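Input record (one chain):
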Amino acid sequence: MNKNSFEGRIGRTWHDSEPWYPAPPAQTPGAPNILFIVLDDVGYSDLGCYGSEIQTPRMDALAGAGLRYSNFHVTAMCSPTRAALLTGRNAHAVGMGAIAEWSTGFPGYQGRITPEAATIAQMLLPYDYGTYAVGKWHLANMGDYPTGGSREYWPLGKGFNRWYGFLGGFIDHWNPDLHEDNHPVQREPRKGYHLTEDLVDHAIGYVRDHVTSAPGRPWLTYLALGAGHWPLHVPQEWIDKYKGCFDDGWDAVREKRLVRQKTMGLLTAETSLAPPNPNVRAWSSLSPQEQALCAKLQETYAGFLSHADDQIGRLIDYLASTGQMENTAIVLLSDNGASGEGGPTGAVNIRRHMSMERETLEYGLAHIDKIGSEYSFPHYPMGWAQASNTPLKWFKRNTHGGGIRAPLLVHWPAKIRDQGGIRHQYHHVSDIVPTLLETLGLQPPKVHHGHEQIPLHGVSMAYSFDQADAPTRKQTQHFEMAGDRAVWHSGWKAVARHTKGDDFDADRWELYHLDQDFAEIKDLADQHPGKLRELIDLWWEEAHRFGVLPLDDRDIERSLEWSRRQVPRRFELQPGMARLDRQLVPPINDRSWRMHAQLREVQPGAHGILVACGSRFGGYQLHCQNSMAVFTYAVHESLVHRLEVSLALGDTLLEVSFARTGERAGRFDLWANGKHAGSAQVKRTWLIFGMTGGLTCGHGNIPVTDECLPLNAVSGLRMEHVIIEVDADSQLETNSFSAILQEQ
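The corresponding structure, as predicted from the sequence alone:
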């Protein structure tokens, strides 16, 4: 309230004054609570209720008392799906045409949700909703990550009252980098910790605190789990539940899932499996050793998903025990299809596998017992991703069915009477917000905080709740991801799979009649050239209308370009500072750099981490212990370089330098008070994009080495500052990075 809006009367004292109170927020009688549950990289067939052998009884129970959608679509990667889910608009049109890290200087690729597209949280705040976000956000540009940066595009800037979670695309579930509200969290390591359990604890806590402090007010909770995105981290007992379950291989699993899907009524009896994707070998062609490693990786994924299901069950049990289930609308979905990023044989450490060197079978077998633990960063092989997407072709990042079809469960006892029903209407993630607004009897705002709003693009699905056989009301939906393109219109789909670096105009478009060909098997492009031309023209119309252009087939190069423009080359760190996010740490990849740490009043027994960046899967650390200063550079979890020097009492200046001597190679040197203490030759350095943790000064957050544990604050000395200086980019670095990408 300000003086100009005050409608009472102010006299000399309260006796001759008249108070005035603003009207309370509007309320919709019987307004439901709303719970979004978003799974990550979970394929179309991975839930038990979609044909899987993986045990997901709590999600299956939601389907059994609600609805399953067999023909639901998302985008081919996570950030665009989340943007469409929260705004009810197409992803490019709101600035999120790719994952947030791949932002460019074009409107459709800002890596931020534009203010012209209010989120469902912002739409519901005027109607007395409490709004809470927990888990993965991945909807902020990297320029918004710094502690001193803007928070306009973080959850609290997008209509949520509280948030606990992580910003980027993936997370270490044993040792996560987390934020709460608008600041980094210094998490205290504890035995038995797992992120999924922590996230559900916070979701329960936010709802509990809401209902006990504001009884009668509805709430919206957005729970976005990291499961089942790599790394596949889960307690061992959950992996053990699946021992031997996948020994028959992915080909047999696909066949069995297809049979179940038909029996359930998700697919027609005529539906066939799409042909195997390229680079997916027949299970029978793998050696027994390859089969053992691949099976163990899938056992870990299955345990990861079942563990997430169990934690979702804890939240459901809480809602049931407090009488909130009847009028809570639960919407559960996956953000895209299963990931083929693990390659033909998967990986114990996917970051090493993707950005440094292909893991060997011998390495995988030697570390097989670590898979799923904090000493691994694993991902399943693409053969299992193909099985996850049964009966579809291709993967996450592709606009064929394997990338964009997803499970969708809607559980809402107050609105849905056909318990256990299946709906076959074609729908898209942008249709969720229009559905909720229709059932609430609300219209989206035309202006929000001074910004004229983009109309909603989605079509309400509410008609399908009570009309199983109603015709699909949606008419058209376009798709694009890093050059892959598709458009669906009235039952027909045109799709082009683009190879990075190829001429877009040379891409071959395929044509499918999806109403009769669920798995996109029979390409009708040659039989119906007129229909294909019509749909290609329609795609271009949609692309112009919704901000898809310009087409861009770069991926991680976009992040590198942003880093070159935005990330500084000199960092002056202070002890106790907030953690630097992993996307914004000093960009030391494949170039010379130096670090200076000025220590004062060093005492006997000085102990603690001075600087730590990354993790044991790729990172560096400078610490003190046992009267020594130690510098560690972890190329990966099995290759660590270590230098040490005696730590003088009083004042000590520690210096570390890296001199680049060749492509991704160089020499580390360590000095103490100007005296050289040793060198280490590194034949192959990691890239900044191999990082799995941020940077801390004066304390630790994620282990880079098992030395200097636990990760307590520095004691027995006073840190003045730490300065890190990085040389400018070189053409050699650019060439090196491009060559690595080509190897993938």
